[in-house]
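U., I forgot to send this yesterday:
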Amino acid sequence: MPDPQPASVYDLSHDEEAESLATFAVLVDNEPGVLHRLVGLFAARGYNIESLTVAETDRNAHTSRVTIVTRGTPNVLNQIHAQLEKMVSTRHVQDVTRDPNGLERELALVKVRGTGAERVEALRVADIFRARVIDTTHESFVFELTGAPSKVDKFCDLMRPLGLVEVSRTGVLSIQRGVDGF
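Result:
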């Protein structure tokens, strides 16, 4: 019986690791080119950005908060975290997904067409999800919904057979519970 091949130190094959979503909140200097470099970091390594929100948070300190949702194996997510921290313009990185005090929310505007029974059912579902009607016509509604991304997904899934026309989402926003800030 032949001897099995010895394991090589150069063998880079790994067991398949499960991918998961991760949300990173990044405090950066608010200056030209920062967002371009941040997005370039993801593109150069072949990482996908599933959601991206950016806004200035402190004019006096010249800082912006960037919230990025991405997907990867634990190793890839650790690499992303490390690369974000290495960026010159980065002041702080928080992995909101792993932080027990992390909160994530998203705002969505959802347009639904419907008359008769579908219209009544759309209003009933909206009430259950605490969605607000912000515009109405005789044939349609526009609902405003805030919540976890999974809540927005479920609401859209339930509205689809009732006449879902269009969805506009802000992307994920995040913040930490408690008195400590970023």
